[in-house]
Amino acid sequence: MTIPADTVSLFDYERRFHERVDPAIRAYIAGAAADGITLRENRAAFDRIRLMPRALVDMSAASAVSTLFGERLDYPIILAPTAYHKLVHPQGELETVRAASLTNCWMTVSTQASVSLEAIAEASTTKLWFQLYMQLHRNDTLTLIRRAEDAGYKAIVVTIDAPVNGIRNDEQRAGFRLPEGVSAVNLSGFEQRSAAPETVGSPVFKGLLQGAPCWDDIAWLCAQTSLPVLLKSIVNPADVVPALGAGVSGLIVSNHGGRTLDTLPATIDLLPAIVAEVSGRVPVLVDGGIRRGTDIVKAIALGATAVLVGQPVLHALAVGGLAGVAHMLTILQTELEAAMALLGAPRLADLKGTIFERGAMASRMQN
Amino acid sequence: MTIPADTVSLFDYERRFHERVDPAIRAYIAGAAADGITLRENRAAFDRIRLMPRALVDMSAASAVSTLFGERLDYPIILAPTAYHKLVHPQGELETVRAASLTNCWMTVSTQASVSLEAIAEASTTKLWFQLYMQLHRNDTLTLIRRAEDAGYKAIVVTIDAPVNGIRNDEQRAGFRLPEGVSAVNLSGFEQRSAAPETVGSPVFKGLLQGAPCWDDIAWLCAQTSLPVLLKSIVNPADVVPALGAGVSGLIVSNHGGRTLDTLPATIDLLPAIVAEVSGRVPVLVDGGIRRGTDIVKAIALGATAVLVGQPVLHALAVGGLAGVAHMLTILQTELEAAMALLGAPRLADLKGTIFERGAMASRMQN
Amino acid sequence: MTIPADTVSLFDYERRFHERVDPAIRAYIAGAAADGITLRENRAAFDRIRLMPRALVDMSAASAVSTLFGERLDYPIILAPTAYHKLVHPQGELETVRAASLTNCWMTVSTQASVSLEAIAEASTTKLWFQLYMQLHRNDTLTLIRRAEDAGYKAIVVTIDAPVNGIRNDEQRAGFRLPEGVSAVNLSGFEQRSAAPETVGSPVFKGLLQGAPCWDDIAWLCAQTSLPVLLKSIVNPADVVPALGAGVSGLIVSNHGGRTLDTLPATIDLLPAIVAEVSGRVPVLVDGGIRRGTDIVKAIALGATAVLVGQPVLHALAVGGLAGVAHMLTILQTELEAAMALLGAPRLADLKGTIFERGAMASRMQN
Amino acid sequence: MTIPADTVSLFDYERRFHERVDPAIRAYIAGAAADGITLRENRAAFDRIRLMPRALVDMSAASAVSTLFGERLDYPIILAPTAYHKLVHPQGELETVRAASLTNCWMTVSTQASVSLEAIAEASTTKLWFQLYMQLHRNDTLTLIRRAEDAGYKAIVVTIDAPVNGIRNDEQRAGFRLPEGVSAVNLSGFEQRSAAPETVGSPVFKGLLQGAPCWDDIAWLCAQTSLPVLLKSIVNPADVVPALGAGVSGLIVSNHGGRTLDTLPATIDLLPAIVAEVSGRVPVLVDGGIRRGTDIVKAIALGATAVLVGQPVLHALAVGGLAGVAHMLTILQTELEAAMALLGAPRLADLKGTIFERGAMASRMQN
């Protein structure tokens, strides 16, 4: 598993991932919902945004450090929850967490990890968050929370945007099935939702939504743990008030990487209105299509506290294992610092105002 | 006639249709007017619209059911009128109507069906509408209406946007002719319009428009039957008032799938102004480019009562016969329910407000 | 020289022209200025415009006839001036004028015709206009006018947008030279402009502009003839007042088909402001990218009295001689009538208001 | 080293450059930062701008001459600073300066020239500017200034937008290293910045920014020389006031050709606001993507005093040496004059108002 010398950006990892990995696994990991419009829009929206630097700023004390939930965060880059790392590496999440630890990046471990959450915690020297899907029975949910608390996880990320699976045609066409030896080991023994056994018509409203969580469940969840609870995925600013009312400590703007409902807006286009609605009460994070240091800059400039990266972790894990993931994260860190240097922004807070607005330029001209 | 396992969306049926069907027949069925700008725009306009979900809504009583002309409609998905089903299946419309019946979808039978309207009605256990082209002689038109009434059809859909054929270059290039054994059997014996026999210049204004219907003819038609009469295709909001004045019971916003006049707007871009003009007095339906559950969601959100699907029926009929059409319709139903679940909209009426408006987001940010 | 049966649109003629004609001649005829941005924009601008039909209009007395300079014009389609028809057909402009006569289309004969203007007039049974480049010496210009008058030409079209040649890279790369036997026979013996013989630097400001016409020359020209003088190419609305002051009888909005200065706007985007400035005082015509009946509809709807077609004439002449040109013109006439029928516009004047304006729709919705 | 006859535009030189030059050298010279968005946007922004000519203007005294820093400038086209001309030609900058002299173009010599600045000055009969990177030690900077003054350079161009290198993935993938015999000879013996020797994490904030210049350094620089000092690259209008306060005599709007920070705006989109802010106090120049005479026209129309061309010089030098560069510059001069002729603008000052504004047209129509 050698990393070719010309692997110098996250897109290179993505390209090599597609060259090297089994088609069905690729379809599961990289496949979008329906026609991939949101998947592509996540990227296109970042690419459309233009940056506006300041010249000749003193950068001698520059730093990308920030604070989140009272802890020092070296870079505003956190590993997003992604399922089944064993699909691309025999050590699975153990390999990933070692790379995250090496580069001082926090990692969110998925409910659907292919390694026990305790084993991952043991292999880690960085901070871990636990991503939670609400289970059909509250007891099972509670079991997961307690295990995460006991293993030293620092926050709970509850994913709310997948009451049913998205229409993942790529995955369906490839006929993906979990291979032998890869499973959601942390959910072993928990009852899962299933559709009523009918032969005709859509199965969605016939059982698959059974036990899907509502706001009450989030309030219950927040009451069960002293850990900060983050809600993923917030899309609509109108959901901010109920979320804060339910007691969450942070929000993650996300469209599930374009993997649930196609034609959702790009997350970076959603971020500003949600940040405005939150108005500083809790941190707002964002994921979806982050591939460049300039993407991180744009997210921070538009009000995010940090970003999460998901797919690139699996690309790099498949291509280069620990070394790949650590390299990929270092690339992002380097690109972020280079962007800050070239923008004349010594601190993350200075990134505010680095977004170029055509309208603002035009009105300046008329004065 | 086996359906490959990787046929999981309407686009897959479309692709396989193009792989399997004779080029001249494909050109007739799928060919657009002129340069196909409206055909592609129908799709592009849906793809441009972004959706805005609500989180954690209680979906336990979710349902896509509605009422139309006093009848329960399980899903707001109706088969659009399309000609000559025998072009792609030996059983023609009989096969189609069995699939519609199996999935509880209403079907609109074309004037140009290749099977007698009575035989189709006999094979049906679902509700049927009859699509009518006004004939050169009112007696012939009346004959068609009486036959449809007698056979139990529930509505008349009168198509008004084809006083002459569109400029169908694809079809012309392929040299399409109706094959032996396929004809508009329901029009047998009726006189058709023809151009004056001149040798030079355009034939359009020299007879081909003879007997093309005007508003008086629609008023006459509505007076002849107690069935609801729907007008297809409404494009201009200014035509709503005369249509209601003539006595129609419903409107279908359509550009004939981009097959009559090229560079007409996409139907989904036309819908809102027409819905506003109608102001709830009659139901407004829409067709043109519907391929995804999210397309249906967008149409309903913008004021449609239901959508019609045309081309996908022929694609699926060609690829898989009864099973293909039933499968295709089930995909649409499933995608619609999944979209409602992921949007947090338990009823069709809740889809109002699920359209993302960039401007609205921006103004929210300024408060 | 057979015309394949699948040649059913102007684009088909264009495609076959490129298949059949010598590359250097193609580069001369079809080559754009510089990067072809204006050439493509001429088409793209038409394709962006959406049409808005009225339903069920009485078309029994429909007609595309109009009046121009007191003469009946069967269709608002006139042949634009194009040089050297002998490049693609041994009979040159004689063949073209026979096709124009057969289809009752008026034809503008180029100063650079490869056949004498008198011979063309003799072969014609339709109305002819004469296109004029102002010559270095007024006597030569006057000679051309008198010859055109004597031969029965009905108007003078003076081209003003080519004081120097455009940067025609396609033509330069192909190394085009006029072949033996093809020349501007009507200019035989007239002195032409030439650059000063220097070895370094641009030749443009060193003689090539010598004798380029100014407004005084146009006023002089209008005073020399009782024929209507049309100015081609008007681009800037600010040039309307001086043009009318100089005594011209008509204006042709044109960017020389994208062959002079690249990145000029599309002519259809220029038309409305010029029509507004002219305010009905003289007819305004337009050329540039007309390939469809719907293009003609859009030009008329935006205020043009008629359109001119240039390139398609040469395409059809190369592919099918007289039959090709007559067929091509009949296609345009047929497409125009079909578009009028499908728009519910029985007269050219009814085309006003058939342009779909998104903004207008939106404001209607708010009422 | 023959120049093919079909090399008739700057794009032809670019194409041949890519055909003929070693891939790693191409990647160094032509490679963009990151994803090349700014590189492409520089071009796309020029292509989006539409021009608006005046007809029949008297061009008999037309000229592209202007005055800059008290000197006559034949054409507003100056060679931008580019590094290491020996990469593509054995004579390096000596060959380039001979071509610039032959065509009377001013040339900016790079700090990273591969030939001594004195030798270049000796080979020159045109005016030279010296481009300066502030060195780690002020003494070294001062040495460079004095050498430039002594050699007769007419201005200092201080580049401020590269405190660290951009993320040049193309160059990294190609594994570019300076070949034997090519080096920054003018910097010989000067200490360069280097990163702290750590093994993990980004190197950017660990030493690479050491000694990066601030506004004080620019003020110091301006005080050291009586030559005009130009600042390159200005992007943000907010930097105009500090720049003028520091004493600079001119500004160059630039994004380093898309080679430092990706997703910066196109320079032509930045120019108007900066020109407005400067308000005539000092000349404003612009570079980035200039390939056509119409690009120069647009820059001048939007307020630039002159443009700089960089990449095309290296393309032409690689393809045709002295003859190539002289030819390329003559093409630009010719295209500029042809554009002025076709726009009816006899002087550079007349180019104001030749930009087509859709909005202006629309409002004219409403009067």
How would you describe what is shown here?
4 copies of one chain form a homotetramer. Chain A has a single domain (10-366), classed as Aldolase class I (TIM Barrel, Alpha-Beta Barrel), CATH 3.20.20. In chain A, 41% of the residues lie in helices and 11% in strands. The first copy, chain A, has helices at residues 10-20, 23-30, 37-48, 93-102, 117-122, 138-150, 169-174, 204-208, 215-224, 240-246, 267-278, 293-301, 311-343, 358-366, and strands at 66-68, 71-73, 77-79, 106-109, 128-132, 155-159, 229-234, 250-253, 284-287, 306-309. In chain A, the strands form 2 sheets. Chain A has an 8-stranded parallel beta barrel with strand order 3-4-5-6-7-8-9-10, surrounded by 6 helices. The first copy, chain A, has a two-stranded antiparallel ribbon with strand order 1-2. In chain A, strand 5, helix 6 (138-150) and strand 6 (155-159) form a beta-alpha-beta unit. In chain A, helix 9 (215-224) runs parallel beside helix 10 (240-246) and helix 12 (293-301) crosses helix 13 (311-343). The longest helix of chain A has 33 residues, at 311-343. The first copy, chain A, is globular. The model of chain A has no long low-confidence stretch (mean pLDDT 95). Chains A and D meet through helix 13 and helix 14 of A and helix 7, helix 8, helix 9, strand 7 and helix 11 of D.
Give the structure's gist in a few sentences:
Chains A, B, C, D: Residues 2-361 form the FMN hydroxy acid dehydrogenase domain. The structure is a homotetramer of 367-residue chains. Chain A is of the alpha/beta class and 367 residues long.
